[in-house]
Amino acid sequence: MTATLIDGLAIAKSLRLQAAERAQACVAKGRAAGLAVVLVGNNPASQVYVRNKIKACAEVGITSRLIEKPDTLSEIELLSIIDALNRDPEIDGILVQLPLPKQLDAHRVIEAIAADKDVDGFHVSNAGALMIGRPLFQPCTPYGVMKLLESINAPIWGAHAVICGASNIVGKPMAMMLLARGATVTVCNSKTQRLQEHTRRADILVAAVGRPHMISADMVKPGAIVIDIGINRLADGRLVGDVDFASVSHVASAITPVPGGVGPMTIAMLLINTLESAERRLHLLQP
Ligand code: NAP
Q: What phi-psi label fits residue 61: left (phi over 0), alpha (psi between -120 and 50 degrees) or beta?
């Protein structure tokens, strides 16, 4: 391996230490920051994600409230839970774990969250605010990627960034954040022709597709910074990214591992967003 390893675990740990100090400052100002997590149904992956988020809150001193409901929950019932959380003065952030059971319209549910408590940054107002360069909450995964790039002083201004994946929660906000920092951005999706011609032009290559090892060494420009957002479980139980780490790490100048790269940053940024919301409410920050 010749690339520098971007250690998301270590960077997330230092962000969590900062978060713990900010959480203390909230308590000193009157109350702990509060995050409500709504989990509907019993998707095992969602249960693990939620458990990790609740644990991370406890570790830094954010109060969390877990609301678990069966997968028979109606949309009206879910909207009424969100409405109560929107009005709850002790709740600074509301997170509805996705995916939701089929009878629930995720768009309608996310739009019901007060935009100023939408710590996932998925509400249409927050997506729009990010697009015009005035973000309130930035989606946690791409926000975490920006912190990883900062940690290695990656030159973003004027760089060509290529993002494989164009979802509303990862690929598109990633593009907006890199664009806002002066990158020239190419966004690829499942219809993109000759993907390799795009990826090989990338100074910063971000993979957010959900296909194990789809980015091979011949798709990477020598010296590129490679960020692997993908999380894929193989048949043998191993967790791998979208990037073939073993070969790409000989071509890239810096690379994130999976696990231990972007994943820990996502939860760290959720804590940061929740604290920012609490600080606004407690007047520790200007609105
Ligand atoms: P998603 O909603 O399924 O979106 C996947 C995107 O990849 C879509 O835009 C799709 O294109 C595009 N795509 C599919 N095949 C492609 C191909 N051959 N070439 C180029 N683009 C292609 O997934 P997501 O929620 O964005 O998540 C992506 C990956 O990141 C998953 O592995 C997920 O588990 C992981 N993830 C990780 C974290 C973390 O904390 N590390 C957080 C969130 C997600 P179309 O738009 O044309 O369908």
A: left
Q: Is residue 274 included in any domain, yes or no?
A: no
Cα 189 to middle of ligand 1, angstroms: 9
Q: Is residue 166 part of a domain?
A: yes
* CATH number, position 206: 3.40.50.720
In a shared domain, residues 84 and 190 = no
Question: Which residues are part of the catalytic machinery?
Answer: 53, 97, 120
Q: Domain range spanning residue 62?
A: 29-124
Kindly report whether the global pTM for this prediction surpasses the value 0.85.
yes
Residue the block writes with tokens 């005035």: 134
95 and 144 inside one domain: no
Tell me how far the alpha carbon of residue 166 lies from the centroid of ligand 1, in angstroms: 7
- Nearest alpha carbon to residue 255 among 1, 3, 8: 3
Q: 85-131: per-residue pLDDT in tens?
A: 999 999 999 999 999 999 999 999 999 999 999 999 999 999 999 99
- The verdict on the CB of residue 169 being under 6 Å from ligand 1 is yes
Nearest-CA neighbor of 226 among 236, 235, 234, 216? 216
